Amino acid sequence: MNADFVGAFVVGLLGTGHCVGMCGGLGSLLSIGQGTNKTALPIIFYNVGRIFSYCVFGALIGGLATTLTQISTLNHSLIWLRILSAMMMIVLGLYVGRWWFGLLKLEKLGTGLWKYISPLGRKLLPLKKSWHALPFGIIWGWLPCGLVYSALTWAAVSGSTLEGALIMGSFGLGTLPSMLLVGFGATQIKQLQQSPVFRTIVAISIICYGIYTGYNAINMLVNLS
């Protein structure tokens, strides 16, 4: 198995405190209009749609980066992109640890597009049918998120459209446990994500992985020089 798939899954799994903060009211939002006949289907459909959007992002970024690399005269461009990916992992770790909030500046880049996309999602509320949460999730997957943008840098170095989609799919699956628990109203996951000890362990783990990725990329660059 490609190590990037595992890494993307782990980053999604460990970094979802940010997602929980942004989507903490998701359960009540999707249950509007269901009355007393509440089921788990809207939450499931929502997350399927959200992960589908991530896969589309990964395919687009992976394919575009590969194409540009093939026509570019810049030597070892994928290795340089991997170094950028490592730096983004470190930035993400600093954000998760609440030591530096530079990642929020990256999120602002997507707010201009989001203000045009978000009304499409609001038109689906309240959900008339459970499966309407699927297109809602696809739209909500475009919500500006520094965690997603960080994972997309891995898709950029994947080397193909398919690999990019698979990396973002792995990332999405990593976010799934926390997002499902939040959607079902489990407050314990929120308390865990807010724990300073847990947050510090997660942040250091992500930073170490970023350093490891960057070290390997620099070694590759040196060996190819």
UniProtKB/TrEMBL annotation:
**What superkingdom does the record give?**
Bacteria
The portions of this protein that span the membrane are 6-30, 51-73, 79-101, 131-152, 164-185, 197-215
Domain (Urease accessory protein UreH-like transmembrane) spans 8-212
InterPro entries, alphabetically? Answer: UreH-like_TM_dom (IPR039447)
Leader sequence range is none
Query: Which Pfam families does the annotation name?
Result: DsbD_2
Keyword list (alphabetical) reads: Membrane, Transmembrane, Transmembrane helix
**Is the keyword Ion transport assigned to this protein?**
no
Q: Which protein is depicted?
A: Sulfite exporter TauE/SafE family protein
Species in which this protein is naturally found: Vibrio plantisponsor
